[in-house]
Design a protein that fits this description.
Layout (H helix, E strand, L loop, with lengths): L5 H17 L2 E3 L32 E2 L11 H8 L18 E2 L5 E5 L4 H6 L6 H13 L4 H4 E5 L13 H18 L3 E5 L1 H8 L5 H4 L3 E4 L2 E6 L2 H6 L3 H19 L1
Parallel strand pairs: 4-5, 4-6, 6-8
Antiparallel strand pairs: 1-2, 3-5, 7-8
Helix pairs in contact: 2-6
The protein binds uracil.
Uracil binds next to helix 4.
Length: 255
């Protein structure tokens, strides 16, 4: 039988509760005769992810005083559907919508899925993805899935990993904008020139402008090198530059 250590269970529980909260759940009531009262509870024996102890119907959903007009990530994914708005749809295996915490304080925006992402359906899971994870987890001391949300300016793989074309970016941008509006993080990081240019609506010379603050709809936006660029030009100077940029982001998020 598979066993879990306490830290893993707590991390999974936090992640699951964060997920529920993102769908509007505000509390999970316990039955009054529950055996899980404070006196009898043996935290080592309770499996926090055993949903059968709390049936879904027992959960209460938040009723907002005023209906929000901002769609949720789930709404946005539904609207995207089996997208054929641009030609990238004909060559893709999977739509790579985004992954991470829908309530993250930090969002990374990349360029577009590569081969690995297209196959697995998640952003930044290939070589550049491993570098990005390292930047987030080792460099920033954050947890990739719990503390960040990651997406791209186009959600389908450009053939041969070419840059996405203007019309492909224009077709996909409304969904990126809605994702950022839904999450409204404390900071956004644009990874590389295409992401920076898309979010700022102008051609950004990334080597000149990386490390500088901008805004996207009032949200602080940091520009930095794409992790694939970093891997290609793996100099001390470039690695330091990205870490400087990420330290600025951490500082901004702490207020
Ligand atoms: N590069 C990107 O820009 N995005 C991905 O998802 C993967 C690699």
């Amino acid at each position: 039988m598979q066993t879990f250590d306490r830290a893993t269970l707590l991390r999974d529980l936090k992640s699951y509760l964060t997920f529920l909260r993102s769908y509007g759940y505000t509390d999970i009531p316990l039955e009054s005769n529950s055996s899980l009262n404070a006196d009898s509870r043996n935290t080592d024996e309770v499996h926090p992810l055993n949903e059968s102890t709390q049936p879904q119907s027992a959960m209460t959903k938040q009723t907002p005083a005023k209906k929000s007009t901002v769609p949720t990530l789930e709404n946005i994914r539904t609207e995207l559907g089996d997208c054929t708005r641009c030609k990238l749809s004909s060559g893709r295996k999977t739509i790579v919508f985004g992954s991470g915490n829908p309530r993250a304080d930090l969002v990374f925006v990349g360029e577009g899925p590569g081969k690995d992402e297209d196959e697995q359906g998640f952003p930044f899971v290939g070589r550049a993805g491993k570098k990005l994870t390292e930047i987030i987890e080792k460099g920033m001391n954050l947890h990739r899935e719990q503390d960040t949300y990651i997406c791209n300016i186009v959600k389908c793989r450009p053939p041969g990993n070419r840059d996405p074309k203007e019309e492909e970016i224009s077709a996909c941008k409304p969904f990126l904008v809605k994702q950022l509006q839904a999450i409204r993080p404390l900071a956004i990081v644009a990874l590389g020139k295409p992401a920076a240019s898309t979010l700022l609506g102008r051609s950004v010379p990334i080597t000149k402008e990386r490390g500088t603050w901008h805004e996207f709809e009032g949200i602080p936006l940091m520009l930095t090198f794409h992790p694939a660029y970093l891997l290609r030009f793996y100099t001390l100077e470039n690695r330091r530059a990205v870490m400087d940029d990420m330290n600025k982001v951490l500082k901004k998020m702490k207020g």
